[in-house]
Amino acid sequence: MKVPSPTSLEQPEIALSRLLTAAARMTVVTAESCTGGNVAARISSVPGSSGYFLGGVVAYHNAVKSRVLRVPSNVLERFGAVSAECARAMADGARSVFDSDFAVSTTGVAGPGGGTQRKPVGLVYVGVACKATTQTVKCQFEGNRHDIVAQATERALQELRKMVEAQFSESIPVR
Amino acid sequence: MKVPSPTSLEQPEIALSRLLTAAARMTVVTAESCTGGNVAARISSVPGSSGYFLGGVVAYHNAVKSRVLRVPSNVLERFGAVSAECARAMADGARSVFDSDFAVSTTGVAGPGGGTQRKPVGLVYVGVACKATTQTVKCQFEGNRHDIVAQATERALQELRKMVEAQFSESIPVR
Predict the structure, then answer these.
(1) Closest Cα partner for B90 from B120, B141, B113, B56?
(2) The whole model's pTM is what?
(3) Which residue from B minimizes the CA distance to A36?
(4) In 3D, which of A128, A137, A139, A121 has the Cα closest to residue A172?
(5) How far apart are the first and last CA of chain B?
(6) pLDDT digits over A115-157, tens only?
(7) Which residues of chain A neighbour B64 with C-beta distances below 8 Å?
(8) pLDDT of residue B4
């Protein structure tokens, strides 16, 4: 499918709108822990986003990750909520629960509390899922709580944009 | 001249933190349509909010309102998604699904499209729920999409703060 080419300074939520508005019935959902709703807020800030954005879950507490997003309890017990495995399960769970084409997830330590030597403040995992594949990215951000959430939000949107763009260049099958 | 009380200029999410951090194990969840995650983002922006903020649902599409928040289909059919009845069902549903003490919901027409004569752009219903009661407020905001979402987010947080404060002044039973 041919879609308008992006501009280099285009915000990822605008790129998503451009790509997904052209793709009738393709949908996106969010599953956020450390970003706390900011990814959903950025996606839904674009007029017309209700055409492709079904919604999302803010899974701050682990009970929400397991009960609503169906993250398996052994993932939380063995790897912890801040892990690639949890980011993957959140993205897969959101795509399944909402029956969407794409999902994006975030889980990390926004601080100022909650950091450990193994999982310091600023450690964030981003997950993106479509039917064919689920990918996770490990990030280590610097700054205060606000800075970390802002960087994690931007990275999540960029990873989602990349996956949607890849679909449009037909490098991965989505459906 | 009356000196403002310490809380009169306090942002509602800070007031929530002050009240709920003092109340061990009392919890809050969000159920957002038109605000798209902004209420959750404001609540979770406060350090330590993971102690009382369980999470939330961004229910942009009606299927999410019914499937995840358990809004009865007859509410959506009879009154529509932008209605006091839907705001009430979203708040009640979120409190039930997440098993929380308090819930706040938003549903409205953020624009620029989607407005009708009966339900114009800027019409927003806010719902707040605790065990004892669920209340809704009808608002008509002015401005563009960004302005309407910002005002709806602020109003939702203020209504939630009022309900939590009322609980602490023991005017309504929560549990």
Answers:
(1) B56
(2) 0.93
(3) B41
(4) A128
(5) 39
(6) 999 999 999 999 999 999 999 999 999 999 999 999 999 999 9
(7) 54-55, 98
(8) 40
Write down the pLDDT at residue B31.
Answer: 98
Rounded Cα gap, residues A169 and B166, in angstroms = 55
- A169 Cβ partners below 8 Å, 6+ apart? none
H/E/C letters for each residue in A89-118? HHHHHHHHHHCCCEEEEEEECCCCCCCCCC
Please name each of the domains of chain B with its CATH number.
Answer: 12-168 (3.90.950.20)
**B-chain residue closest to A48, CA distance:** B113
Both tokens assigned to A158? 């960029």
Residues whose CB is less than 8 angstroms from the CB of residue B24 and which lie 6 or more positions away in sequence, other chains included: none
Q: Which residues does chain A have within 8 Å of residue B30's beta carbon, measured at their own beta carbons?
A: 37, 58
d(CA A76, CA A86): 7
Q: Are B98 and A64 a contacting pair at CB < 8 A?
A: yes
Take residue B104 and report the two structure tokens written for it. 């706040």
Instruction: Write the DSSP assignment of chain A as a string of letters.
Output: ---PPPPTT--HHHHHHHHHHHSTT--EEEEESTTTTHHHHHHHTSTTGGGTEEEEEEE-SHHHHHHTT---HHHHHHH-SSSHHHHHHHHHHHHHHHT-SEEEEEEE--SSS---SSS-TTEEEEEEE-SS-EEEEEEE--SSHHHHHHHHHHHHHHHHHHHHHHHHTTSS---
DSSP state letter for B103: E
- Contacts (Cβ under 8 Å, ≥6 apart) of B14: B46
Digit-by-digit pLDDT tens for chain B (175 residues) are 343 445 567 899 999 999 999 877 899 999 999 999 999 999 999 999 999 999 999 999 999 999 999 999 999 999 999 999 999 999 999 999 999 999 999 999 999 999 999 999 999 999 999 999 999 999 999 999 999 999 999 999 999 999 999 988 865 555 5
The amino acid at residue A155 is R
In terms of Cβ atoms closer than 10 Å to its own Cβ (0-12, 13-18, 19+), residue B119 is: middle
